[in-house]
Amino acid sequence: MMNAVIIDDEPLNITNLQRLLEQYCPEVKIINTATSADKGAEAILEHAPDLVFLDIQMPGKSGFDMLGALPHNDFALIFVTAFDQFGIQAIKCSAIDYLLKPIEVEALQAAVTKVKTRIADKRKNLLLDNLLHTIQHRFSPNEHRLALPSLKETRFVYTRDIVRCESNNSYTSFYLLGGEKITVTNPIHEYEELLLPYGFIRTHQSHLVNGKFVKSMTRGAEALILLEDGTQVPVSRLKKELVRKMLT
Fold it and tell me: Where are the alpha helices (DSSP H) in the chain?
């Protein structure tokens, strides 16, 4: 059983989430609710929940403001939000789960299942720490880090240090400055969306490259990207003109 707190400025949203949890996630016990960031912080400090369901956009203080003000973050977290473009990008980069309103049952069950695993392996604090780091450095993209979860550990890698990504079926390998390789069990398309704002280019179905490390691009039918470390990356015919425009 996981003790949980719900923080949302709309009482109806709290009621709806409680109902869904009672019906579809009986392993979650709601021990307190709050309709503001300040009340939410009080509930967390008083009840020490295992899990917090948190709205991002609330009057006065946002969910991010509340997290940054807490003396410690010893709980798992699921964001519940209507829309927040930068917030969702930061959440995804930190591998933290979120639910879009209106909440779908399958998405809720999947998020709760992931949280149970994270509570068991103690990764939750590191993920939340990375999210707060990203929010703090919102206007400094070079300071943003991407969470790369594997079976043994979660690595936090600065996006500026990722040279390229290469997929192999449902696995993705990250090649970093210095030659290190990290392989994760997620497909490359999940990382394309996260890395595009940092200057990455999808050159091929299996390849994603950091534009700042591109040295040149060959001409001809079978185009190749040459990276500064000497690696050659293929460019698909369908993406050739788009890639060329992105590099000029």
Answer: 11-24, 37-47, 63-69, 85-93, 105-121, 124-136, 188-195, 240-247
